[in-house]
Amino acid sequence: MTESNAGRANEQPVFAAELFPYRSLGRKGFRVLLLISGALCFIYGIFFVVTGAWPIGFFLGLDFALLYGAFWLNYRSGRAREEVTVSRTDVAIRKFTPSGRMVEHHFNPFWARFLVCRHQEIGILSMHVFGEGRRTDIGSFLNPDDRESFAKAFKGALATVKQRL
User: Fold this and answer.
1) What span, in angstroms and rounded, lies between the C-alpha atoms of 56 and 62?
2) What is the three-class DSSP state of 63?
3) Which of 16, 25, 88, 134: CA 20 to 30 A from 58?
4) What percent of the chain has pLDDT over 70?
5) Nearest-10 crossing angle of helices 27-50, 54-77
């Protein structure tokens, strides 16, 4: 193998993962929920306005606006994601905020350490990569089962890279 081919082989990722927050209600379910709650609020709001209890109709409209706002914020936070790659020469962690801003962290895979904080009943509470005086968390928005599977795969990838000296 030539030197340039060996360099390219070192850059090939051994592990790559893209992490997203879990949302139990999909876009279609969100639309159905808004249609049903909007229709109910509208029907009852009209009833209370016609019967002279107009403040109740106003508050039903306010309830619907707050429900929509809460779900909008929830789905906006769901746009956060993390890209994690491990190659023989680099551990790269790219964190994307809901607004699209990216923060990138790089670690030397031979110095990088993976710290998992566990609770006996709950499982993994947090995961961190640290090395060379720097530290970052990974997958803080994942559910416990996804944290377990990610931790196992990421730990295996780091071990694989460290074995290939």
Assistant:
1) 10
2) helix
3) 25
4) 93
5) 170
And the tokens for 125? 């509470």
Largest interatomic CA distance in the chain: 86
* Distance between CA atoms of residues 135 and 127, nearest Å: 10
- For the chain, the first-to-last Cα distance in angstroms comes to 16
Residue-number span of the structural domain to which 59 is assigned: 27-78
Query: CA 163: distance to chain centroid?
Result: 30
Distance separating alpha carbons of residues 129 and 86, to the nearest angstrom: 12
- 91, two tokens: 């551990």
Q: Are residues 89 and 151 in the same domain?
A: yes
- Name the pTM for this structure: 0.76
Q: Would residue 6 count as lying in a domain? A: no
Residue entry with tokens 């990216």: 102
- Cα 131 to its chain centre, rounded Å, is 23
Q: How far apart are CA 128 and CA 126, in angstroms?
A: 7
Domain count, the chain: 2
One domain for residues 52 and 88: no
